[in-house]
Amino acid sequence: MVKVLGISASLRNARVASADTLVKDLSSIDNRKNLELYIAKQSQILVDAFIEAGRAENKPFNEIYKNLRRLSGKQGLSNSEGAMACGLWAAQQEGVDIDHLSLARHFPPSGKIIMEEELKNKIMACNAILLSGPVYFGDRGSLAQSFLNYCSENTEISAHLKGKVYGGIAVGAKRNGGQETTLIYQMLDMVNMDMMAVGNDSTVTSQYGGTVVAGDIGKLTSDEYGITTCIGTGRRVAHVAKLVDSGSKVTAKGKIKVHLWLLQDDDKRKGLAFFKEWCDDIKSMRDDVEFVLWDVLDSTVGRCIACDVCPIEVGESSEYRCIITSKKDFFAKFHEEISDADAILVCAHNPGAGNKVLSEYQEFIERTRYIRRDNYLFSDLLVAPFILSELSARKNLHLRIMTSMVRHDTVISHPLICMNYEGKKLNYNKVIIESQNFIDNAYNLSVGRLKTKIVNTLYKPEGYIISKDKFNEDMKSGLLEETMKSSKNAAQGKLNTRLRIIER
């Protein structure tokens, strides 16, 4: 059974006792209303504990904190714990097992890790991690950092987490309080440990994870939108973890189709030559992958004009329905072909200072707006940045690629970055090894999608009144549901032509 481990990374955690009843409590909750009532009740327990610990007497916080630690046990939830519990509940509703880990139990303010065997056992038993914690200056707290250090330094744990799924939740005192930057930094660290990262799901238009506004103890339940993002993150983590698990339990024959989008290069086209060479090298090593290299720089990409309704009409996913219809436009010419992929590598060459840069990157990424809004055509595909970078380039394009592409409801993999110096590819052998890992994970995800059947992922307009009105009309008429079903069947058919499952 797939297991999602919810991790609380806050020093205010209430549930640090080993006899934790949280998982049992969540299993008895059957709907969101009862979940919110439970979270409110548990938050109030912690508020009362603060009062008992000395808040009513205006004692200094360090004294209150010591008293709280003594009161910690089986009841109460901090804001970070409550947010994590919302995600865990949603994961369990998706049909997976759940477990809970309080980092405050294992990482004391000073000294060595305590009860390490218990900590390690919980990590080693999970298929996915849902990490929730507070924001400090737009970044994670020290408990989360200690956890990340521990995982990366332990070779057995690092090996176990490779290819597992990660999702994050961040809690800040105000809206735009650093939650998204915290999630972005954490996502990068997790994929650098070879985990596969996801955001929240399409119920809140697929963003970076759970983003909660809650400063004072017990304020979580005031943020309905934040709770929705936590639930969406837990649901997304469970969904992708099930795909990975399903794909790992069978063998398959056939080739997956990996698309490479070359969006930036220099005027000497070093990038194009590099990516062609890479494709040839990988194909010489394995016969389970087909590459399609799109030299976008050889085409024209019109700028997105941010239509009030996008796509302009309801239709099959194979149909091009962006308002830009120039015959020279890349998307107008190749929409159907680029929609047929099992994994995507977003490619670029970062030349050094003083070199001419050819780039369609920003125009291309913003134009994928119509693809995202067309019910996430790239949903559940594995995506990674693939960069050839001069040693002196000082660019962060890989991070920008990750944060843009996760919004397509994709699964984000470790960036592939080849460093070039004076014509020498310094780490090419390592890049080849990492590329093999990417293809292995993409193959596994594709088999999982094939076995469990591709699901419809509905884009729900947020913040666009005209789009929302049209969406409601199309839902009411049944046209949207009809075309989504047809598109899903077509995608499933294409996958069936490439892969054939052989049960173990």
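Above is the first protein from milestone M3; the second protein from the same milestone is given next.
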Amino acid sequence: MKNKYDLILNKSDIRKQIILPTTLFPQLAEICGIHIGDGHLGFRPNKSEYLIQCTGNLKDDKPYYDEHIKKLWKETFNLNVKFRERKDNTYELRIYSKSIALFFNKFLELPFGKKSRTISIPNVIKETCKRNVSKEMVSCIRGIIDTDFYLVKDRNYLELGAWFASRDLIIDLQQYLERMGFQPKVRLDVTYYNSSSKKYLIRHQLRIRKKEDLKRWFDLIGTNNPKIYKRYQEFTTSSAPVV
């Protein structure tokens, strides 16, 4: 049972009634963005085991996973996914599927193993933006924002932003946000001390702070994460003005 990418559904995936997409569409692009933010693609040769993993915060992200990510996977791959609560206060999606893992790798160009320093927006999504920024690109960016961006209010300044280890990802986001009319602020090659590894590492930041840009983000890109939606509503309807 093949699709146009020459990927074969194995017996286990056939029993699960998994369907592999035959083209790129917004829901698939959003899953790609979510994976860029929270995901991991793994392969253990000794067990011939393929894993698609996505991990969020148990307290903050559970409604987003339960209400939106579950729906996306059903619409895109016809798969009823389940999540598990972990002792480290994370909420985790684990899918064992060779077909989907290879689809992520071959079609969406998502790498196996560690990706934090090398990940970027896949070419298959960039190719949809030859004229205008496509719905697929907007959906991919929404997935990244919903999983990896912060939204804070500091001295009446509302800021949407993120830190990434990948320089290429920051540059990609800057380019396509600017094409959409945003004016993001970017800081590259910032050195910081990582207490976990006890090493000095390099990271990169993108921020959106202008009031009109934040409104444009909410109008043009939006959010499917209830945590971000609630926070945005609280910040913009509070008595203190947002600069």
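Note on the second protein: The chain is about 40% helix and 25% strand.
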